[in-house]
């Protein structure tokens, strides 16, 4: 068995050209696998059954006196190494069938989007507008639009003035792959953007050469288009002024938009269209956020929720 393992690692090094760290990880995983098989009385790869491979996966997740339980990601890497070993042994003629083929690596836990409560969003928006002068009006308009439409930051900073239809209360967003969608703009966001257009954008535009009409909707202090990095900095600075703990990402307000809509009873397919997701499966992750919130409320409110 050890001879096959050595041949497999040599194959990965020479023919596949895997990185040194990857080879080292595979070596550790396969050493643990061969030790597991030895403890189970298995003397060669030809004696291994599918139940041995699935049992090894269970042992990885369970841990023992010498090894802590592995996360899904680490266990998945080990199973990939084991599956590769058995496939190599089959192709090289050492065994007659691949018993590891049907053993699937564990799927890593899905990371739920981070959404903050409505009250925190309001505090964030107010903090954004607390700056004096054109910058405060611009920052409030930007964050109101992000939260009010679910736009990605890249979509928001890519807006032209003409993309906003103030008469129809809509905005035209260019998403991934150039796919364009028209999204309603709520009264709060529309009012903030109108205040910015009337009272702040002319002053910002005067610092550049593009003039007030046409061009980018959101401008920097030099009169040029606002960048994604600057928009992210605006969000981060507003969060600090609002005293919000935790890490806020450029997608925070987009996640809040979707989660709060579904909390309010919105159909997931409507939210899919608003977000510009190609598949409803991507949007359905927000329903998991809502279920988690329901569990939290139940656990803290129901007298017999905790046994």
TrEMBL record:
The active site is at 152, 176, 251, 254, 277, 286 (o-(3'-phospho-dna)-tyrosine intermediate). Residues 111-299 form the Tyr recombinase domain. Keywords: Cell cycle, Cell division, Chromosome partition, Cytoplasm, DNA integration, DNA recombination, DNA-binding. It is found in: Cytoplasm. One of its GO terms (cellular component) is cytoplasm. GO terms for biological process: cell division; chromosome segregation; DNA transposition. Its main location: cytoplasm. It comes from the Bacteria. Residues 1-90 form the Core-binding (CB) domain. Coiled coil: none annotated. InterPro entries: CB (IPR044068), DNA_brk_join_enz (IPR011010), Integrase-like_cat_sf (IPR013762), Integrase_catalytic (IPR002104), Integrase_recombinase_N (IPR010998), Integrase_SAM-like_N (IPR004107), Recomb_XerD (IPR011932), Tyrosine_recombinase_XerC/XerD (IPR023009). NCBIfam families: PRK00283.1. Site-specific tyrosine recombinase, which acts by catalyzing the cutting and rejoining of the recombining DNA molecules. The XerC-XerD complex is essential to convert dimers of the bacterial chromosome into monomers to permit their segregation at cell division. It also contributes to the segregational stability of plasmids. Belongs to the 'phage' integrase family. XerD subfamily. Forms a cyclic heterotetrameric complex composed of two molecules of XerC and two molecules of XerD. This is Tyrosine recombinase XerD. It comes from Blastococcus xanthinilyticus. The lineage of its organism: Bacteria, Bacillati, Actinomycetota, Actinomycetes, Geodermatophilales. The gene is xerD.
């Amino acid at each position: 068995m050890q001879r096959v393992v050595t041949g497999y690692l040599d194959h990965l090094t020479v023919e596949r050209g895997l990185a040194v760290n990857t080879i080292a990880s595979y070596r550790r995983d396969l050493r643990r696998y061969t030790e597991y098989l030895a403890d189970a009385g298995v003397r060669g790869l030809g004696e291994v059954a599918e139940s041995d491979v699935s049992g090894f996966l269970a042992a990885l997740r369970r841990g023992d006196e010498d090894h802590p339980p592995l996360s899904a990601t680490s266990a998945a890497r080990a199973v990939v190494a084991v599956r590769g070993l058995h496939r190599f042994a089959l192709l090289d003629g050492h065994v007659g069938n691949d018993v590891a083929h049907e053993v699937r690596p564990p799927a890593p836990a899905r990371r739920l989007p981070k959404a903050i409560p409505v009250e925190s969003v309001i505090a964030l928006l107010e903090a954004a507008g607390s700056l004096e002068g054109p910058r405060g009006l611009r920052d409030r308009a930007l964050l109101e639009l992000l939260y009010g439409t679910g736009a990605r930051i890249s979509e928001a900073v890519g807006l032209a003035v003409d993309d906003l239809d103030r008469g129809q209360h809509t905005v035209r967003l260019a998403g991934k792959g150039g796919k364009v969608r028209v999204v309603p703009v709520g009264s709060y966001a529309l009012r903030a953007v109108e205040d910015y257009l009337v009272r702040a954008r002319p002053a910002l535009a005067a610092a550049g050469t593009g003039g007030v009409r046409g061009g980018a909707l959101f401008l920097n202090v030099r009169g040029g288009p606002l960048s994604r990095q600057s928009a992210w900095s605006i969000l981060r600075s507003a969060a600090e002024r609002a005293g919000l703990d935790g890490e806020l990402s450029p997608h925070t307000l987009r996640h809040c938009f979707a989660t709060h809509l579904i909390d309010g009873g919105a159909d997931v397919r409507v939210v899919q269209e608003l977000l510009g997701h190609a598949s409803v499966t991507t949007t359905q992750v927000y329903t998991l956020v809502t279920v988690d919130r329901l569990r939290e409320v139940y656990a803290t409110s129901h007298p017999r929720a905790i046994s």
